[in-house]
Amino acid sequence: MLTNEHGNVLYTGVTNNLERRIREHKSGEIPGFTSKYNCVKLVYFEEFNSIDEAIAREKQLKNWKRCWKNALIVDMNPEWKDLAADWDMCI
Question: Per the database record, which ranges form the GIY-YIG domain (predicted)?
């Protein structure tokens, strides 16, 4: 899940390469929701062994209430830090 600097927007997506996808979002090369709302801060992620599992979980999370998503994030990342902040993004 990505958010903006204020934490008032959440984006949920799926990818087969998290570092590449975060780099794309942070560089602004992906037009759409994340660039419109400046969602460049990785606050939550999960890993799966199959794309089918990942897509099913993405669909589940997209149907969740915002308060449930917030609780999920806080459980993994209480301070809503950018989990990709120290990745070498080369952007």
Answer: 1-71
